[in-house]
Amino acid sequence: MKLPDSSRRTFIQNTTLAGVGIGLMPKTTFGLTSSNNIDKLKIGLIGVGLRGTNHLENLLLRKDILITAICDIDNARMELALDTLQKADFPKPQVFGKNDLDYRNLLQLKEVDAVIIATPWLWHTRMAKDAMLAGKYTGVEVSAANTLEECWDLVNTHEQAGSHLMILENVNYRRDVMAVLNMVRQNVFGEMVHFRCGYQHDLRGVKLNDGKTPYGRGAEFGEKGISESKWRTHHSVYQNADVYPTHGVGPIAVMDNINRGNRFLSLTSHATKSRGLHNYIVEVGGENHPNAKVKFKLGDIVTTTIETALGETIIVTHDTNLPRPYSLGFRVQGTNGLWEVDGNRIYIEGQSKPHQWDDADDWLKKYDHPLWQKYGAYAADSGHGGMDFFVLNAFVESAKQNISPPLDVYDAAAWSAITPLSEKSIENNGMPQDFPDFTRGLWINRKPYEWMKNTF
Amino acid sequence: MKLPDSSRRTFIQNTTLAGVGIGLMPKTTFGLTSSNNIDKLKIGLIGVGLRGTNHLENLLLRKDILITAICDIDNARMELALDTLQKADFPKPQVFGKNDLDYRNLLQLKEVDAVIIATPWLWHTRMAKDAMLAGKYTGVEVSAANTLEECWDLVNTHEQAGSHLMILENVNYRRDVMAVLNMVRQNVFGEMVHFRCGYQHDLRGVKLNDGKTPYGRGAEFGEKGISESKWRTHHSVYQNADVYPTHGVGPIAVMDNINRGNRFLSLTSHATKSRGLHNYIVEVGGENHPNAKVKFKLGDIVTTTIETALGETIIVTHDTNLPRPYSLGFRVQGTNGLWEVDGNRIYIEGQSKPHQWDDADDWLKKYDHPLWQKYGAYAADSGHGGMDFFVLNAFVESAKQNISPPLDVYDAAAWSAITPLSEKSIENNGMPQDFPDFTRGLWINRKPYEWMKNTF
Q1: Of A279, A313, A336, Cβ closest to residue B272
Q2: Measured between CB atoms, which of A193, A271, A432 is closest to B322?
Q3: What is the reported pTM?
């Protein structure tokens, strides 16, 4: 396997953050302190919408990176990003975005070691492929791919070019999720048996808005929409599938050693009728609003059940069109007990009172992950309850060393494959669909990433 | 359709309990007061194990029934039943049980109007068929049937003989379940979209015991076991299926008008590995216990997803072999909001604070079912939190009038069909299985039972 030409960049080796005492440092000094820009990881941002800007803001808190290039076809977003950089006293990056393919010019820059792709879903794989082919250490937002062929594209391009890809799944770094992962690794739950997870998030106000502000109440999407409603909503019009599986399945896949001693074997999926988006349009825009005629193909609740090679099952839910409070619905169940995020409760045989739940908080505190113990206070303000700091940190630290990231291209492919496989199962009345083995058999030998440490 | 010969029994018509002020009455006077035994419903009990005895004890609190016959092949259980009757000053019933088929002699008695069948699962359909053919109003414990053919047997026998069958699903009468049913009927949740339910109950100490007392800690079952472990555990040895679906799916089926304007269309099922029962045997009996060699076919968690004719989905869980607190895992979700029993929470758009759960208690109190408002205080001591009173009351009152019961033979068939269909799906890697239409098309015209009243 050809490895990327590491002479093209200067990676910072042997980061020694552990000894720095991050809790005491002012925020802007996070990362290896260095006055020498040559030693810093040079990052190109492709896409500075809401999510890309979030990454940008978190990057600006680090001393070990430079933002050398930004690409966005939306001038307003670009100006906001440049303004943000200037206010943080970061050097002005090179700017791209004169057309849809201008990101390829960014990828040609010697002054870019790594890229973060935060664009609409249909651009993720295309851009990630191009980035890996250009030798860039590639971070891609969730979900990574839209079709099975795109899943293979990611894997094949990585293996051909030797460039690494990390799927930037922030929920893998949520404090409770990492504590439970710690419990899994310490065998508190016993042998793993069953999992539940999903994306249960009322996105009606995201998929539909007033076309002026991202969360402005309205019934517009597509050309008349703004922000995510410009592109994300089309997936609800055209696809009946779990179009956004990774926030739920990412954390579970790591706990269950998927692609590393285990793998997804097959799934079945079922969708309900579609009501939520239409009802919302009528409620907000009236019965005569043109969008009241749109037939949304996406069922309001999509239920997918995955079987794994080691005999566990995983229920994955997609629930984004109906009024409901947010929950990723996690459940992690083994032969000794289980965690359920709904109700915030844990039961462990022999330790909990028989047949009675414990409040999860005590357990989660006891098993707080070393990374959170170390950086928790610092991370708190970074976005999404802190997890955005950790996923970005893992990306930057992995990229600096040019090593395989914690959440790699095989993870990106296997998790993202749920979308096309669920779509096919739903189309065929729940017919089971086999997962490709994206590791080409290597899953039986691949070792789990070493999660239980306090670096990244 | 031939109707049963109602001249063979004297039914009590026009019960007027509503005006009696039950809360003030001493317990033993429940039911229409009558000094005339001829006016009372004459009940035969087939099976007086733990469950049958529970029914017996609740029947003894009523004034509108007589227990005219009891059948059980277990002398110890029979003696306990007779002793219980005597202490309650009930006349001595005729006694059957000299062999497995002696229940058929009970069914020939003129002095039996209605029977309650509470025997091991493999006897349910056989006995229910014979009872209906003998013209008895038939109550059968859950689950009602084991195979698809048995589901049809129940339906065909009912239609041939004209006798009614009620499936005695007590969870349909749970206070929270009935309050939520009230909310469903009043359209609080909007149009129904998605449901979850299941039987999540650590039965290791039921399936395995010491052979001396029903819940005595031990590793025995079958011939060396006692009570349920004598027969129930065999289903875990031989069947990989949701072998006990009705406690979960019964309440949901009523809320979703199954067989009454809606129906189950198809399902897929997935089972995990089987670990819990084996681990328990090793823990309790040691590695060298003979039962440590038993290979249990039943996966520890069985996940079934049902599609309905109106486009809802229902996830049904079977989880009885692992350490965990009890939960039937209900979720009832519509276009306006949802109830989740885990976490005890409800969200209703426009009434709950945006994106925030309400504690379910206030809602459940507000929508407390008329039946519970009327009989709740009385029912509290009847077993399983009161619901046993209500299911028995519905059976007795329906039998007295010889009318179709709230939970009828089509419900029994459709709910019980989940067992064989899930077994076949699991055997075939999750292949979808179609439900038979046990109503032979009548579901499109059948009206829902009138649940929202304060009689039964």
Answers
A1: A313
A2: A193
A3: 0.93
